[in-house]
Amino acid sequence: MASTVTPPRHSPTAMAAASGLTVFAAVMLFITGFLDIFRGIMAVAEDDVFVNTPNYVFKFDLTSWGWIHIALGAVAVIVSLGLFTAATWARVGGVAIAALLIVANFLSVPYYPVWSLTLIAMFSFIIWALCVVRRDDVTDQRM
Fold it and tell me: What is the reported pLDDT for 141?
């Protein structure tokens, strides 16, 4: 007699929470990605907006920082669109790009301190939202 094992079904509340956190992460990554793109454009177009820090260990030209933020922001926007489909690659990519953006914003704290710390907090929430949801919670919803 062969027994079939059925995967455990999650409660509707757990499935709604999983969906909500994934959508939260997608929306936040989309918004913060665009904000990082705009921040990069500010750095490339007008260097006077940023604080001049002469003795910073990780000193880069502000134009270089601008292009870094534009590139990472664009990738974040693309990955956020994948999160709306609950794709596994997008969840992994979302955690990776949010981690890279945390590092980029940490390194640019002396140039724009309050905004850098605000984005670090937002990217931390994105990583949390993408990591707290189990894969089977998200795939159960799509069935």
Answer: 47
Which of 64, 121, 118, 126 is closest to 97 using CA atoms? 126
Residue 86: partners with Cβ closer than 8 Å, 6 or more residues away? 22, 138, 139, 141, 142
Backbone angles phi, psi at 12, to 5 degrees: -60, -30
Q: Look at the block and give the residue holding tokens 């956190």.
A: 21
Within 13 A of 3's CA, how many CA atoms are on the CB side?
A: 3
Task: Give me the amino acid identity at 132.
Answer: V
* 53 vs 12: CA distance, rounded Å: 52
What would the mean pLDDT of 84-111 be, rounded to a whole number? 88
H helix or E strand, kind and range, residue 106:
helix 88-107
Distance CA 43, CA 51 (A): 11
Contact indicator for 29, 83 with CB cutoff of 8 Å: yes
CA within 13 Å, CB half, 18? 18
Cα–Cα distance for residue pair 65/40, rounded to 1 Å:
7
Q: What is the mean pLDDT of residues 99-119?
A: 86
The residue that leads in pLDDT, 132 or 55, is: 132
